[in-house]
Specification:
Elements lengths: L4 E6 L4 E7 L5 E6 L19 E6 L18 H15 L4 E6 L1 H12 L4 E7 L12 H14 L7 E2 L2 H12 L3 H9 L2 E4 L2 E4 L15 H10 L4 E6 L10 H7 L4 E5 L5 H4 L1 H17 L1
Parallel strand pairs: 3-4, 3-5, 5-6, 6-10, 10-11
Antiparallel strand pairs: 1-2, 2-4, 7-9, 8-9
Helix pairs in contact: 2-6, 4-5, 6-7
Amino acid sequence: MTPPEELTLQTRYLRLAARAWGPPEGVPVLALHGWLDNAASFDALAPLLPELRLVALDLTGHGLSEHRPQGVHYHLADFLPDVLAAADALGWRRFALLGHSLGGGLASFMAAVSPERISRVAMIEGLGPPTSNPAEGPTNLRKAIDQMNALPAKRPPLYPTREAAVEARREAGGLSRTAAAILVERAIRPVGAGYGWRTDPRLRFMSPFYLSEPQILAYMDHLQAPALLICGADGYLVKRDYMRERYARIAGLAVHILPGGHHPHLEDPEPCARLLAPFFGADRAG
């Protein structure tokens, strides 16, 4: 199997890392991973989609991409200019999006606000951002500020071996050992005699502000590109009743539920590939 290409994208904001598969003339698809994951999230899926030029981005603060400057934080909307900047660095004026979890939320918002750039959008276990009870807003903001202020005194976790880091990631995400090992390889760095996470610890801060569900539905109303959503039968989305209204607001959304949990594209990629290949290939076929 041909290994992926490692890319460095120098944007007007930051230097972003990415992995790429497929021929340069293939259907351009920018893949966005989930929270605290990285571009390796698509390692198992991408080789099953050989007609695509699939570029999996390390989102800012994740994987091998740069972190935001000190004093700057990671709010949902801040990732969207990064995504467009990565596409610009690739020379892509119009392209498709594939997003998992956080990446799926970003992909849905990007398709809603930049329809002239996004040809199609496929989401795996992610559709819009999480919301919260508005009454909890003041408490959430206080927690976020406390986390920001406490960070300088916190000692990041260290692991004596790679295997220990893999086990920690496996337990945290309910992943198989194989899937956890794929993600961890790009997520750790040597620290002394052990290993620590490359991921920016500021990504773990609670969001100081959450959008309300009516605000999120407004974005779903504006998503007009052909859209595909893949859910794991044991994943996050099928357990949330409010997602039904989000589905209903997107014109022409196709929803498929596959066996598995929150990472079906990594744990069992073939069923995902059977849905994604014709979806992304439809424009070329036409």
